Each structure stands twice: as structure tokens, then as C-alpha cells.
Amino acid sequence: MDKKSPIYLYTDGAASGNPGPGGYGVVMKCEILVDGQKRLAVKEMSGGFRLTTNNRMELLAVIVGLEAIKWEHAEVEVWSDSSYVVKAINEGWLESWKRKGFKGKKNMDLWIRFDEVFSRHNVHFHWLKGHAGHPENERCDTLAVEAYHGENLPEDTGYTEKEEQLF
């Protein structure tokens, strides 16, 4: 990938039962040079867990996408239908949570992991309406649902039902 070309990162998370089996889907797009010609590179990623929540999968999708970028200081445009994720960044919630040591916040393990990878890039978040026919968002949703329908799903070690009951 051309390190100067922006990376477009589309993400979605899903859970059946919330909590229940859950999955995430990611579609990454970036222009690359092949034999002097610009081409569009597309990479898809997904994963599922036997017990998790929708918000955890929405956030994990962004994390997995950002972690897949192989260089520092990439220009990244994240498109998500998760108000939880987009508002946490665009409205400054994450900074407030960090100042308070994430006290009383769900998904602390993922937010700490997110913050580490987020700080390596120049990332801009955009909200888009889910299930509204946006091709990349629909593809991410399909990947997420297929992932949680898989067999032998691993445990989401950061999620516990006790966490859900605390808040």
C-alpha cells in the first residue's frame, strides 16, 4: 500500500442475544501502485466469540483494522455504524474515561488496546447509518454474522457476565 494514500476502514460488530455469540467484520480499502498504475487493494477480516456483546464487537472491529496497518502515522478514515465507538472518539468520551482511569466503564480492556493503536495513526471517525444499503457496511455486517455462526468459537476473555451485571 502507498503510505501516503488514505486507508478507508469500514467496520461492524454483531451479537445474537447481546450478550450472546458475537462477531466483527472489517473491510479495508487503499490505493496501491502496481506497475505504475493505481489499483484498489481490499482486505477483509472477521472473527467471532461464543459469548460477548455488540459494543465489544463494534470496538474490536476497529481495533483489528487499525492493528492490521503495517506502518506508523497512516491516514485512516474509519466508517462505523456504532454510535458508541464514534461518539467515544468524536465527543471526547475516551479522553475523559482515560483521565478517570476507566473507573466504572465497560470494555476497559478493549478501550486500552484501542488507545494504543489509535495513537499510532492519524484517524478520523465517521458515523454511517447501519443496514441502509451502504455496500461496505453491509459486507462488514455479513462478515460479523458469519463469524459468530462459526463452530468452536473462542472465549472473549475480556468479557464476563459479571461486568454486565455491575452497571
Characterization of the model:
The chain has a single domain, classed as Ribonuclease H-like superfamily/Ribonuclease H (Nucleotidyltransferase, domain 5, 2-Layer Sandwich), CATH 3.30.420.10. It is of the alpha/beta class and 167 residues long. 36% of the residues lie in helices and 31% in strands. A hairpin with a 4-residue loop joins strand 1 and strand 2 (20-34). 37% of the residues are buried. Strands 3-2-1-4-5 form a 5-stranded mixed beta sheet. Helix 1 runs parallel beside helix 4. It is globular. It contains 6 helices and 5 strands.
Q: What is the structure about, briefly put?
A:
The protein has 167 residues and is an alpha/beta fold. Helix content is 36%, strand content 31%. Strand 2 (20-34) and strand 3 (37-52) form a beta hairpin.
Descriptors for this entry?
alpha/beta, about 170 residues, Nucleotidyltransferase, domain 5, 6 helices, 5 strands
- Mean pLDDT over all positions: 92
CATH-level-4 superfamily name: Ribonuclease H-like superfamily/Ribonuclease H
Distance between the termini: 43 Å
Radius of gyration: 16 Å
Which stretches of 5+ consecutive residues score pLDDT under 50?
none
Number of strands: 5
Work out the strand percent.
25-35%
Structural category is alpha/beta
**CATH class identity:** Alpha Beta
Tell me which CATH architecture applies here: 2-Layer Sandwich
**Strand and helix order:** EEEHEHHHEHH
* Tally of alpha and pi helices: 6
Q: How many domains comprise the coordinates?
A: 1
Biggest sheet: strands, sense, closure?
5 strands, mixed
Strand order of the largest sheet: 3-2-1-4-5
Shape summary: globular
- The residue fraction in helices comes out at 25-40%
**CATH fold descriptor:** Nucleotidyltransferase, domain 5
